[in-house]
Each structure stands twice: as structure tokens, then as C-alpha cells.
Specification:
By secondary structure, this protein is an alpha/beta fold. It has a single domain, classed as Metal-dependent hydrolases (TIM Barrel), CATH 3.20.20. It has an 8-stranded parallel sheet with strand order 2-3-4-5-6-7-8-9. A 3-stranded antiparallel sheet has the order 1-10-15, with helices on one face. Strands 11-14 form a two-stranded antiparallel sheet. α1 crosses α2 and α4 packs parallel to α5. The radius of gyration is 19 Å and the shape is globular. 48% of the residues are buried. The structure holds N-carbamoyl-L-aspartate and zinc ion (2 copies).
Length: 359
């Protein structure tokens, strides 16, 4: 006997949070803040501004700029009230144990971000010798401040497609061994190796996964023409890795949760001879994730991933309001107006998604 249960056409979830987003600064905030605030309650704001958010004073000032943009936006008052941007510090070679204590006691800094110098957009001020940061990691362990990692090695001789795997072997293993109770999030994982690595660790080690790494692989980016709007770091990998990430995200394992890595770059800087890395997805991320989960018949696993596991990892309460996604097609805008008269092209611009948010 075969039991067939039709996949649902509608799903209601607790309001999601985004545990990895780039809102940028100044003029960009008028676009990025309302997009994020319409969709998510808590968001963890990445600190890779120019110059970076290096200490609690910088974080407080950045948070104020975000809140000013929120107040000035025309989104519903209920969304303005619910939006809760949480800050991160950008770890440099100069970050001190004192900086960590101050951040932990501030109530507005949720985590510390580690960018190996040269690994990604605005990472030039990142850490050059990770193992020289022992004192800072020890302070984070002591004050229970999580470490968020862009996990790629940066040596010139390591192939771009191997940089995440090499980071697991060369760096992650040591950090976790030497700081066994440090809370660590491997951000935007892109390989089956990273998913397996995270699964094998204790509950203090987790990972975020982006919509693009669940929906696409490097063929989508490179076969039949080069598509710069799929270019982000860590770069899309082969299909078997995409499948492993989909399996991890939809498994119900609370170590894997939502982090869009929505990373705006103006269209003209992506469609260029040397295009910037980053996919912009904040506004459409939930229909994207729904499409990915539904593609493997696992739409019912979306709530844990999008709305519960991240809060549990950070020790925060669950949201109480809900959203509803329906199997009603939506067209992704071909662009959003961005600051200084530029445009912002979202992931899947102009395409139709099978899922949308119910108003
Ligand atoms: N993911 C990206 O490709 N880009 C991000 C930086 C990052 O998260 O690595 C950005 O800030 O543009
Ligand atoms: Zn990154
Ligand atoms: Zn990012």
C-alpha cells in the first residue's frame, strides 16, 4: 500500500529571524532596513562597513543609524515595533579581551565576527593570524559571546572551490579543540564537508545556510553564460554539495538555521569586469527558502530552520507572531531603487517563484 500525502499549499510559521544580514550604511539603509524589517524580527547585522564596526561605541552608533532609517521608512508600525537589529563586532588584530567584556555587557552586541583578512567583501581589516587571537577567544568563551566565522582560507595557492574545506581542516578544528565551550557559528556554509563537520560537534557549534546555496550550484552560475548575480562568497559549489546542504537544512537538526547573507551591491558593481561578491535577497528570502524546502518535499521543516533553531542557539525567546506562505506564484522585482540613483538587482530578478507571502 502506498500512502500519498499531498504537499500543503499553505504553511504558517512563527515570525522568522535572520541570523546573518548585511544592511550596509548611510544611503543604503533606506532600502535595506525596510526590506529586512518587513520580513524578520531579529536580525544579526554584519559589521563589515568601511570602516568596520570594531567596538561597542561603533556598534551603538551603527544601531542608531539603522533605527533612524527604520523610523523614516513607510512600513507598517507593527513591523517597526517588532524589528530588532542586533549588532556584531568586527574582529581585528587589535581586538582586546576588554573590547569583548564591554560588548558582552552592552546588551546590544550579539556576537563577534571573524573574517580572515582578504576572504571576502571589506575584509581587509580582518584577522591575519587566527591563532594569535587566543586571549580574545578565551574572553568570548568566558562572557558567552558567540564567534561567527567566515570560514575560508585565503592562501593564494588554494583553489577558490577548496577554501571552505581547507578552513575546516586547518582552522576550525583547532579553534573548537582549544576553546571547547566557545559558541561558534560557521556562517553561510557551502559544502557537505562543512555540514558534516558541524553535525559532528557539540551543541555549541552551529551553521547558517543562505537561500542561494540551497537553490543553486555552480552550474547555475557558469553554464551558458556567466551570471554575476549568483556570485557570492563562499562561492557556489557543485550539485552534490547543494544536495547535502538541502538535506542538512531540512533535517530538523537545530544546528542549522536561517542566515540569508543578503549582501547588497549596486547592479553596476556586480555586472562589471570585476564584479562584487554578494546576493541581495532580504525582501524575497522567505519565498526563496520555501521554494527550496518544497523542492525536496520538506516544507513542514521550514519553521524550525527559519524561526526556532536560531533563537534557541542564541538563548533568545521565540517570536510570538506568525507569517503565512502560500503556493501562489510571485514575480521577483527586476530591481529595487538604491541610493545615489543606482539600482539593486535581487537574486532571481524578474523570475517567478512558486511560493509567496500572504498579505
Ligand atoms: N557573501 C558575500 O559574498 N559578500 C558579503 C560578505 C560575506 O558575507 O562574506 C558582503 O558583504 O558583500
Ligand atoms: Zn562571509
Ligand atoms: Zn555575509
Amino acid at each position: 500500500m502506498t500512502v500519498t500525502s499531498a504537499a500543503p499549499n499553505e504553511i504558517t510559521l512563527l515570525q522568522p529571524d535572520d541570523w546573518h544580514i548585511h544592511l550596509r550604511d548611510d544611503g543604503a539603509l533606506a532600502t535595506t532596513v525596510p526590506h529586512a524589517a518587513k520580513r524578520f524580527n531579529r536580525v544579526i547585522c554584519m559589521p563589515n562597513l568601511v570602516p568596520p564596526v570594531k567596538n561597542t561605541t561603533d556598534a551603538r552608533a551603527y544601531r542608531e543609524r539603522i533605527l533612524t532609517a527604520l523610523v523614516a521608512s513607510d512600513i507598517d508600525a507593527s513591523r517597526k515595533d517588532a524589528f530588532d537589529p542586533r549588532m556584531t563586532l568586527y574582529m581585528t588584530n587589535q581586538t582586546s579581551a576588554n573590547d569583548i567584556q564591554e560588548a558582552a555587557e552592552s546588551g546590544i552586541v550579539q556576537a563577534v565576527k571573524l573574517y580572515p583578512a582578504g576572504a571576502t567583501t571589506n575584509s581587509a581589516d580582518g584577522v591575519t593570524d587566527i591563532m594569535a587571537c587566543a586571549e580574545v577567544f578565551a574572553a568570548m568563551e568566558k562572557y558567552n559571546l558567540p564567534l561567527l566565522i567566515h570560514g575560508e582560507v585565503t592562501h593564494d595557492h588554494v583553489d577558490i572551490f577548496d577554501r571552505e574545506k581547507r578552513f575546516l581542516d586547518e582552522v576550525m578544528n583547532r579553534i573548537i579543540r582549544e576553546f571547547p565551550t566557545l559558541k561558534v557559528v560557521m556562517e553561510h556554509i557551502t559544502t557537505g564537508d562543512a555540514a558534516q563537520f558541524v553535525e559532528a560537534q557539540g551543541s555549541n557549534v552551529a551553521a547558517t545556510i543562505t537561500p542561494q546555496h540551497l537553490m543553486f550550484n555552480r552550474n547555475h552560475m557558469l553554464v551558458g553564460g556567466i551570471r554575476p548575480h549568483f556570485y557570492c562568497l563562499p562561492i557556489l559549489k557543485r550539485q552534490s554539495h547543494q544536495e547535502a546542504l538541502l538535506a542538512a537544512a531540512t533535517s530538523g537538526n537545530a544546528k542549522f538555521f536561517l542566515g540569508t547573507d543578503s549582501a547588497p551591491h549596486p547592479t553596476h558593481k556586480k555586472e562589471a569586469a570585476c564584479g562584487c561578491a554578494g546576493c541581495y535577497s532580504a525582501d524575497i528570502a522567505l519565498p526563496l527558502y520555501a521554494t527550496a524546502f518544497d523542492s525536496v518535499g520538506k516544507i513542514e521543516m521550514l519553521e524550525g530552520f527559519a524561526s526556532r533553531f536560531g533563537a534557541a542557539f542564541y538563548g533568545l525567546p521565540e517570536n510570538t507572531s506568525t507569517i503565512t506562505l502560500t503556493r501562489t506564484p510571485m514575480q521577483v522585482p527586476s530591481y529595487y531603487p538604491y541610493f545615489d540613483g543606482s539600482q539593486l538587482t535581487p537574486l532571481m530578478a524578474g523570475e517567478t517563484l512558486p511560493w509567496s507571502l500572504k498579505a
